[in-house]
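step=encode ok
step=design start
structure_in=
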């Protein structure tokens, strides 16, 4: 006969107590998760509202390149993830060697290409940076920073130029998102996630070496401050980058393109003008458009001096990153899309021990810390949002070249080449007109690296240094049509004096010449 176990009353009570404890812990965890979810949703809504306030204050897009990105995303959605690219045949991005070094970014843009492309680009430029700022809050929360939500709102307050760059339909917001996710994984010990992040970052943007900078900063900080050298994060990140380069939709052409793309900027081996973003700000301009970002770094340094505790490795990591990205910013203004974020995060972590100590004290002073932080934050937030909105409102009209492009599409043969006098006009022309192909675009070094002599000839023609340029335009560039903005007066003068160049279209933005024989 099998015996039956009957628990004693004491054992039954203990079991019921354990069950009740587990149930209480589950309820607390659910309440915690729900409150975290609601706080995250509220923060995301605020980020979305602030960025929409900037973005929809004008019908124009921030910058020029966004017109190209959203149009190419539409082409990818309609024709496939590796579309043919016949539009820049005289550059390193010709049809045989084309590499989409923003491939993953264009994939992310594809859901925004239904309907009005301009509005789709704007919504993408609200959603992606808002997710980036939310990732910043998640990072602060993971590092147990008090008042992490208030600190995260600082992303809307630290720099007008930062918000303007985040509002561009370009990959920089997604790039910062990847770096913040990588930093969170590194600081929280989830090192293996750096492998897929590195892999995908390569597909997203050619700024992927910054991943090694971010991870390397933590390795260095932990070694210097805690005496522990752990290179596993660097190995995972490096392996992810290598895999992203090799297991790549454009391998091996992507390796050649990276050399062509980055070497002129890193070595300054060419006198070719590559756009204002690669040159530094004037010092006072930086103070005007990013003063709060400079101030929060100084405040972070002040907190380090006031704190009796030894600097922790996570704070040291952000300290190194703020210095590195600050140095990059003084070299090139395009790093304004990184420095303010890392300066803010450094400041938040530097003040963490002081705020924890003050909040532990009894009295009203401890309870007033959130109000004090909010009073400091809100005026800067509103002022920065307003200035960023004004910067976006001062951008070139989205309609520039729309009518000229429509005329070209209607009156020129499909695939016919257009000689244009400005390399950065390509993005708008491509947005409105994929019917024609173009001389150069996106980056002047793409032609300069493809054929230096051809590029020099293009410069001479556009500057009006070539008399009767029709023969050169036809024979060297394969173009029978030329488009110029009205500011290239010397080119227009030479074109009007050339009997083989006839003006066939003109509006307030551009003139089109046809070469006839």
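sequence_out=
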């Amino acid at each position: 006969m099998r015996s039956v176990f009957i628990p004693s009353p004491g054992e039954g009570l203990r079991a019921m107590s354990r069950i009740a404890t587990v149930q209480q812990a589950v309820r607390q965890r659910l309440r915690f998760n729900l409150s975290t979810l609601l706080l995250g949703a509220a923060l995301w809504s605020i980020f979305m509202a602030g960025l929409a306030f900037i973005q929809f204050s004008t019908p124009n897009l921030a910058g020029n390149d966004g017109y190209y990105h959203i149009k190419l995303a539409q082409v990818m959605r309609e024709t496939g993830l590796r579309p043919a690219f016949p539009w820049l045949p005289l550059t390193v991005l010709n049809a045989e060697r084309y590499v989409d070094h923003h491939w993953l970014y264009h994939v992310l843009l594809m859901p925004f290409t239904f309907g009005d492309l301009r509005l789709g680009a704007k919504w993408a430029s609200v959603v992606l940076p808002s997710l980036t700022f939310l990732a910043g809050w998640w990072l602060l929360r993971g590092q147990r920073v008090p008042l992490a939500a208030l600190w995260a709102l600082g992303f809307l307050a630290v720099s007008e130029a930062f918000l303007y760059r985040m509002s561009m339909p370009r990959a920089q917001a997604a790039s910062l998102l990847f770096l913040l996710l990588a930093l969170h994984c590194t600081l929280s010990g989830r090192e293996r996630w750096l492998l897929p992040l590195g892999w995908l970052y390569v597909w997203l943007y050619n700024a992927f070496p910054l991943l090694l900078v971010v991870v390397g900063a933590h390795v260095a900080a932990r070694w210097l401050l805690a005496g522990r050298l752990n290179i596993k994060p660097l190995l995972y990140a490096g392996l992810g980058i290598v895999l992203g380069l090799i297991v790549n939709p454009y391998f091996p052409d992507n390796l050649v393109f990276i050399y062509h793309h980055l070497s002129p900027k890193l070595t300054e081996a060419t006198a070719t003008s590559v756009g204002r973003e690669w040159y530094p700000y004037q010092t006072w301009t930086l103070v005007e458009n990013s003063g709060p970002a400079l101030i929060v770094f100084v405040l972070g340094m002040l907190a380090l001096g006031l704190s009796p505790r030894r600097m922790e490795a996570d704070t040291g990591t952000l300290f190194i990153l703020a210095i590195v990205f600050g140095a990059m910013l003084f070299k090139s203004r395009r790093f304004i899309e990184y420095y303010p974020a890392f300066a803010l995060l450094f400041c938040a972590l530097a003040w963490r021990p002081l705020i924890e100590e003050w909040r532990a004290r009894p009295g009203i002073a401890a309870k007033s810390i959130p109000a004090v932080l909010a009073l400091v934050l809100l005026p800067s937030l509103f002022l920065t949002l307003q200035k960023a909105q004004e910067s976006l409102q001062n951008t070139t009209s989205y309609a520039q070249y729309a009518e000229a492009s429509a005329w070209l599409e209607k009156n020129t043969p499909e695939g016919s080449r257009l000689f244009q006098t400005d390399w950065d006009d390509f993005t708008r022309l491509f947005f409105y007109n994929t019917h024609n192909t173009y001389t150069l675009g996106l980056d002047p070094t793409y032609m300069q690296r493809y054929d230096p002599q051809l590029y020099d000839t293009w410069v001479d023609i556009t500057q009006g240094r070539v008399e009767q340029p029709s023969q050169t335009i036809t024979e060297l560039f394969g173009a029978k049509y030329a488009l110029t903005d009205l500011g290239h007066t010397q080119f227009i003068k030479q074109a009007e004096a050339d009997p083989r160049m006839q003006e066939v279209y003109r509006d307030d933005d551009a003139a089109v010449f046809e070469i006839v024989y």
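step=design ok
step=annotate ok -> Residues 325 and 339 are 5 Å apart (CA to CA).
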